[in-house]
Design goal:
The structure holds two protein chains of two kinds.
Chain A (H helix, E strand, L loop, with lengths): L1 E9 L5 E10 L4 E5 L6 H8 L7 E6 L2 E2 L8 H5 L2 E5 L10 H11 L4 H14 L15 H13 L5 E5 L7 H16 L3 E5 L3 H7 L2 E6 L2 E6 L9
Parallel strand pairs in A: 3-8, 3-9, 6-7, 7-8
Antiparallel strand pairs in A: 1-2, 1-4, 4-5, 9-10
Chain B lengths: L2 H17 L1 H38 L2 E5 L5 H12 L4 E7 L1 H12 L2 H7 L10 E6 L5 H9 L4 E5 L2 H43 L1 H10 L3 H39 L12 H31 L3
The chains are: A alpha/beta, B alpha+beta.
């Protein structure tokens, strides 16, 4: 569960990216974050995985106040969160299997537990037969699948996806959305920032619209609400 | 930390070194030069310490008795000396015994024989006084001098003090050089680690995102720095021990009487190796620490 109470994010250059955000995302929800460029979506997303600290207000991730938690404990908060990016952030010298295993190794999972789990998630994302391929040998859609597999391999309680379909063609975008929907159906919360009007309008999930650092709309089964 | 994780950190550190092999090699070279200078300092310091202890053990006041003094009077003065609480031990050394001892210590009997004028022994009868506290040898000397019948005293303390004073200056100069070079070596290691951090920034970013602990991310960099430091220490240890052994042999093959009493290589070797390895590791880890603090934002 993620909660924000009167959250402000002001950068050192004086820009107020977020102004008095109040929001609550429950376990198992699928939420789209929409809004024009520069509206504060990225800052909102970064607060959720504690890449940024709020300037003012309270951000609770699974009940932990991320502003007060000591720095050395932050990694343990992040282990309950999976993050997916538009540019995949895969390590180019590692295979699909190794990229996913890397996430398990980083949290010191015993080696004997890694292999079955990595194979399981790669099969779940439809890459059971491409495990040995390097990112350069995979299509954009496949790379994003590896990135999603890496995000879910440590069993997070929620996935934060920052424009995961931003670099993909419509067909691949829909494949990724179906995958995220399936992960959500298994009980994982998904929060996704997007500019994809078609996806938001078709999926009809909760939509939070941010403009000039303020939540201007928060509706269940909402629409995108902006022109492309 | 799990053994599996430790193994992974060592592998990653090795990867870092191999990736910037030339830079790592340069850093190891600087550490080696630094530790060579530091090693000279350490050898000097160990030997000064050793020499001071040895000289302290041998420190004694030689109180010369008036020439021609009857034996009974000599014993009376000896008993008077022994009453002084600063005295640990006092013995009468007749002039003939003194000459024999001198022959043995100089190792050149003919030279000593040459000091004799005819059959006359030029040495006086003396009382050799060992102090209970080597630091109070001067005080003991002046008290002995005030006793009637003692015409002159000598403690040799002046030589020790001069030697220690000179050694102190040389030691400080070497120490300053060593510290300056250590800082330089640490900066060079820091630069090498910086390159590794830059080369691995994507991995570090992913590790942060998936929740790797801060120490999990930092460990390979510390191991890399420590490894550069320790490997850089091997060469100077070898060179210093070989040179020291050669110097030791040269000094000890000369005159039997010498004021320089060097620490044996067997005793010095272990101290030198451990100290140099530890110093190498400290320089390496300090270099890593500099870079990790500056460039590794977790």
């Amino acid at each position: 569960m993620i909660e924000m109470h009167d959250v402000w994010k002001v950068y050192p250059n004086g820009i107020e990216a977020l102004r008095g955000i109040d929001v609550k995302v429950d376990q198992g929800e699928f939420v789209y974050i929409v809004g024009p460029s520069g509206a504060g979506k990225s800052s909102f997303i970064k607060l959720m995985y504690r890449e940024e600290k709020p300037t003012h207000g309270v951000v609770l991730i699974n009940g932990v106040n991320v502003k007060r938690v000591r720095d050395w404990k932050i990694p343990y908060v992040r282990r309950r969160i999976g993050v997916v990016f538009q540019d995949y952030k895969l390590l180019p010298h590692l295979s699909a299997y190794e990229n996913v295993a890397f996430a398990m190794e980083a949290v010191e999972t015993p080696k004997r537990e890694m292999k079955p789990r990595v194979q399981e998630v790669l099969e779940l994302v439809g890459l059971g037969d491409r495990m040995k391929a390097l990112p350069s040998q995979l299509s954009g859609g496949e790379q994003q699948r590896v990135s999603i597999a890496r995000a879910i391999v440590n069993n997070p309680t929620f996935i934060i996806a920052d424009e995961p379909t931003g670099n993909l063609d419509p067909e691949n975008s829909w494949d990724i959305m179906y995958l995220l929907e399936e992960i959500n159906a298994r009980g994982t919360t998904v929060v996704m920032a997007t500019h994809n009007k078609e996806i938001v309008n078709t999926m009809r999930q909760r939509v939070i619209a941010i403009e000039q650092g303020v939540i201007v709309r928060d509706e269940l089964g909402g629409e995108y609400g902006y022109e492309d | 930390m799990k053994i599996e994780t430790l193994g992974r950190h060592f592998r990653e550190a090795y990867r870092g070194i191999m990736k910037n092999s030339w830079m790592s090699f340069a850093a190891m070279g600087t550490v080696a030069v630094t530790l060579l200078i530091f090693g000279v300092f350490l050898i000097f310091a160990f030997n000064i310490n050793y020499l001071t202890k040895e000289l302290d053990k041998q420190l004694a006041v030689r109180a010369s008795l008036q020439d021609g003094m009857p034996k009974a009077k000599q014993v009376e003065i000896l008993n008077k000396v022994k009453q002084n609480p600063l005295v640990k031990k006092a013995d009468l050394v007749p002039k003939d015994q003194g000459l024999e001892e001198m022959k043995k210590s100089w190792g050149d009997a003919n030279f000593i024989e040459g000091l004799k004028s005819g059959d006359q022994n030029p040495l006086p009868d003396i009382i050799r006084i060992e102090p209970s506290d080597p630091k109070k040898v001067k005080e003991l000397e002046s008290q002995a001098k005030s006793i009637d019948g003692i015409v002159a005293t000598d403690s040799g303390g002046g030589v020790t003090q001069t030697l220690l004073g000179f050694s102190g200056v040389v030691r400080n100069v070497i120490l300053i050089f060593g510290i300056a070079l250590s800082v330089l070596a640490a900066f060079l290691i820091s630069n090498t680690i910086k390159l590794t951090i830059i080369a691995r920034r994507k991995e570090i970013e992913v590790m942060r995102l998936v929740g790797a602990s801060n120490w999990f991310i930092r460990w390979p960099f510390f191991i890399e720095g420590a490894f550069i430091g320790v490997v850089g220490a091997i060469l100077p240890i070898g060179i210093l021990l070989i040179l020291y052994q050669a110097f030791f042999d040269t000094v000890n093959s000369g005159a039997a009487y010498t004021v320089i009493q060097m620490m044996p290589v067997t005793s010095l070797g272990a101290y030198l190796a451990v100290s140099t390895f530890v110093l190498g590791a400290i320089i390496g880890i300090s270099g890593s620490l500099l870079s990790v603090r500056k460039f590794l934002k977790i």
